[in-house]
Amino acid sequence: MTLRVLIAGAGVGGLALAQALRKAGLAVTVFERTPTVRADRRGYRININRVGGDALAACLPKELFRLYLATSNDEARARVAVFDHRMHPLYATDVGIDGTATPRDHTGVNRLTLRQIMLAGLEREVRFGQEVVGFEQTPDRVRVLLADGSTAEGDLLVGADGVGSAVRAGLLPDVRTRDTGVRCLWGRTTLSPALRDGLPAPLFDRVAVTVAPHGHIGIWGAYRARRPHAEAAAAVTPAVSLEQEPDYLMWVLSGEPGGPFAHEEQWRTASPAQLHRYAADATTGWHPALHQAVREAAPEDCFVQNVRVADQPPAWPAGRVTLLGDAIHPMSPAGGTGANTALRDAAALADKLTAVRHPAGLVSAVDAYETEMRRYGFAAVAESLHYGERFAQAIRRAGKETQR
Q: Strand ranges (DSSP E) for 311-401?
């Protein structure tokens, strides 16, 4: 029996699942609302930990996994260090970037490069510019409803369409995400030679956090390609063409709930240019290289993320629609576990689906996946909140020190 699986969303979780299912010989179609892979600006550098790396190894064809390794950076010793806004050291934490004190395997990867790798071989299966807005289930089929009025049918629909998931709204209408009150203003600055030479060294070997006296928190991390991406792709698999990403500094301005980012409407309606001006003004008086980095950022790369999480709902009956990643367990970015948990979902679901040998076994496979996913997925949500609170406490201590 050949299952046909429909996937809403071509983020890292949806693409990992598509690759795993295609590798196993299942039919798959992915619907992505954005018109191109470059149109999605949900993040820049991400850290893949051991959980995410193991999931990628299970989902990707061997040559694509080798290419992922060839275009990522070893960050096994990544740690967080906290400074005041002028880069005077306050302290270094003993907590790793995934919230644990135990050394873990980590790689730093550019999100766009990873998605380009994961799209390789799926050109016919991924349909950009087609947004899933709803679905209809029958006992033996599921039909997806697309924004353009068209439909598609399959055996299973997987909602991998993020925190605002239309699939979750149809499957679990009573489940709501809650706003933590934390806002993150993201930006990216290309590392020119002059800027690179002026930036403090800790920005290149760890996550650096800066605490300003008036509530703003800066988070900084450089991305430097280990080798040219085109060269890496040619050496590993000539069938894949990658765009070269420049080295860049990823930065985030944030603050605790009730702080400088308290008014949601202000940030929801702000244009990228307005966000950029705000960030440049907010970092006036900070370390000169940090302020320069913000001023030199491309305004169109600035966006605000409202951090939302979900509480674990009661178990629901399994059927021909399921969820993965932020569509079911959105979590705080603290600890960097969101993308890694989505990858774990993809590997777990693919493992269950590829074992199905008869149509009657599909719903049982989905039930087994959802039972497992609820356990570790919402444990990851709790871990991210716990880590975020520990981090916030440390930041508050640091903030008091900057005001002395």
A: 321-323
